[in-house]
Design goal:
By secondary structure, the chain is of the alpha/beta class. The protein is about 30% helix and about 30% strand. The strands form four sheets. It has a five-stranded parallel sheet, with helices on both faces. A hairpin with a 2-residue loop joins strand 8 and strand 9. The chain is elongated.
Length: about 240
């Protein structure tokens, strides 16, 4: 993939540049300390991926991306986590908070590659399809975004104790916080959750393995809530926890 890097801090720009070179699958076609200087190159539509800082002089990274008529894939790199929600709302592939560990950078690039190959393999792919592809990746190592009524809510994964199915809705139970009701299916939410941490134990329940207090023969105690283990889920559950 052909990429450009935009960051007003030369040191940060240099780190992202070295990461791109180490990955080996990215071709750097430009580096800029001012987002506006990148416009001519982006206008030629020869850029597949943009790494952009957010807090920059003249125009911030999010506003800059919004101005583009033909948007390439983009990954935000910033020291400020408060922009994460807005970044994902405009379909950023990923949102990396500085200092960025190299493995986390590679993970973001792999996400971009999946979407790039989807787009390249199907020239007629719709914006809706690409949006859905990005939405399946709207998870970082620490949190997940879900829609509830008219809001998009950021929830820390470690605080989710369990998720309960209620017909067309899911009820997300959060430690010491109000539960969140969202119009999603179990299939939808499972694409957003790390498999090594969250496990389906019943047709109506997903549990955070780290939140389990006690395991009985056919029940799990999670934060003083008794959750049944469905017969069709028992074998997988007990294998996963080594019993």
């Amino acid at each position: 993939m052909r990429c450009i890097i935009i960051d007003d801090e030369p040191l940060a720009l240099g780190i992202i540049k070295s990461y791109c070179e180490d990955v080996g699958t990215l071709e750097i076609v430009g580096t800029f300390t001012n987002a506006l200087e990148a416009i001519p190159l982006l206008s030629d539509a020869n850029v597949d991926l943009v790494f952009s800082d957010i807090e920059m002089p003249q125009i911030n990274g999010i506003d800059f991306i919004k101005t583009l008529d033909h948007k390439p894939l983009f990954i935000f790199t910033t020291a400020y986590s408060q922009y994460a929600l807005e970044g994902f709302e405009i379909n950023a592939v990923d949102y990396l908070v500085k200092p960025i560990p190299f493995p986390r950078f590679v993970k973001a690039v792999n996400r971009a590659k999946e979407i790039y190959e989807l787009k390249k393999g199907n020239k007629s792919v719709s914006n809706q399809t690409l949006t859905e592809a990005v939405n399946t990746l709207e998870t970082t190592d620490q949190f997940v975004f879900v829609k509830s009524d008219y809001d998009t809510i950021k929830i820390k994964l470690e605080n989710i104790t369990h998720i309960q199915g209620l017909k067309d809705y899911l009820k997300i139970h959060i430690l010491d916080e109000k539960t969140v009701l969202t119009l999603m299916t179990f299939k939808d939410i499972q694409t957003k959750l790390p498999e090594n941490q969250f496990l389906r134990v019943h047709r109506s329940f997903i549990v955070n393995i780290r939140s389990i207090d006690t395991i009985q023969r056919s029940k799990i105690i999670v934060n003083n809530v008794r959750i049944p283990i469905g017969d069709s889920y028992k074998t997988d559950f007990f294998n996963r926890i080594g019993m």
